[in-house]
Amino acid sequence: IKMAGDSRFPDVDTDVSEKNEATEIVVNVGGVRQVFYRDNLNQYPETRLAELVNCLSGGYDSIFSLCDDYDPGKREFYFDRDPDAFKCIIDVYYFGEIHMKKGICPICFKNEMEFWKVDLRFLDDCCKTHLSEKKEELEEIARRVQLILDDLGVDASENRWKRCQKYIWKFMEKPESSYPARVIAVLSFLFILISSIVMCVGTIPDLQVIDPEGNRVEHPTLDCIETACIGWFTMEYVLRLISSPNKLYFALSFMNIVDVLAILPFYVSLILTHLGAKLMELSNVQQAVQALRIMRIARIFKLARHSSGLQTLTYALKRSFKELGLLLMYLAVGIFVFSALGYTMEQSHPETLFKSIPQSFWWAIITMTTVGYGDIYPKTTLGKLNAAISFLCGVIAIALPIHPIINNFVRYYNKQRVLETAAKHELELMELNSAEGKAASAKSEPEDFEREGKEGPFCSSRLKVSHSDTFIHLLSEEKHYRTRLQSCK
């Protein structure tokens, strides 16, 4: 590469020999002038720069099909492209691979590679990762925008049941779609809280009553409240299942399985209470009912449906399985080592609390996690030293993987905010382009009739975009929306 003004390379002037002119190609990209040797370019003959080698013999039509402008005096080709991206792309001719500089939008860089006809396989793997992440963001934005558009649009070909089904789905699943849907979401949230509070309050002995068999049971008032909550949850689940577009996916979804686990114990315990006594002993029925009532704690996870914070936490934990695995491995190794050492060192004391190594596991767990209940503690000097080292190692083992887990949480939370903002921005741009298109078509209608006889059919679309614009392909392919993504980073 020869840069203009670089003392290491001679400048291209009018006095170069015919031999040099035959072996050099001068390219000016965005004001940055560079010189290439034909031998290097011919290594990849399918690229645009390699096609410049033989375009002069084809005349100006061939030249201007490849570049934006050409100076025959300087034999210089001009391109109105991004010079920073171009400096990265030309590395393929010298190193056989391309690295994308920090700060360049991956999607725009991909468009530049397509313009210069350089295959994506030359892009380094680390840069392909950034490109795939940006593609996933665009697909997520397109999916969100498409969902909003589907909610706003009404298909006249649908029958009454389909329209009613879509309305119920929006009413139950999308609180942002209307004010009544927001009220339903708030009511569902309140029922979850009330049900959880009733479950906790029902265990207070002073609020319990004695049944005819002499057993303590929940107060009848609390049972009525519990029944009302279960009735609401059941109605909510049935309506969502009936209106679901994909019922199999709906039934196998994790949050919907949680909903079933929150509802099912009530009906199973009801059946066992009224019918189970005839089939089995009363004591077995009561034990089964008690076990099922404990499963009511699953309903607290229903709050995740209405809390973006809990959803973000769940996703962060999913993305942090590797870090959590390291944490458990560190703790497992430390627990095994320090419990064995503690058992060995405490055997010399006559009143030792370390009866066996498996029993010492409990002491090692509460020591390394800095809980320290004090039910088991060392009494010898070496045992106390071992305990001090164990909780210091426990603090280090717990602290090491925490930072990546926090980073995953913050990254996902910020990403969700960016995606929401980008989706709203896309809708605003679509509305703006639609309004401008209508105004332009209304203004140009009289001119179209006059020009039609002279210049032929007049193009109705007046929106022009630059080569560096990034489009959401999912929307442009399915719904023919051609919008500009301003949120690329």
TrEMBL record:
Cell membrane found in the keyword field: yes
Main location: membrane
Membrane-related topology note: Multi-pass membrane protein
Molecular function as annotated in GO: voltage-gated potassium channel activity
InterPro entries: Ion_trans_dom (IPR005821), K_chnl_volt-dep_Kv (IPR003968), K_chnl_volt-dep_Kv5/Kv9 (IPR003971), KCNF1-like_BTB_POZ (IPR048010), SKP1/BTB/POZ_sf (IPR011333), T1-type_BTB (IPR003131), VG_K_chnl (IPR028325), Volt_channel_dom_sf (IPR027359)
Parts of the chain that traverse the membrane: 179-204, 248-272, 324-341, 385-406
Ion transport domain segment(s): 182-416
Protein's name in the database: Voltage-gated potassium channel regulatory subunit KCNF1
Organism, as annotated: Casuarius casuarius (Southern cassowary)
Name of the coding gene: Kcnf1
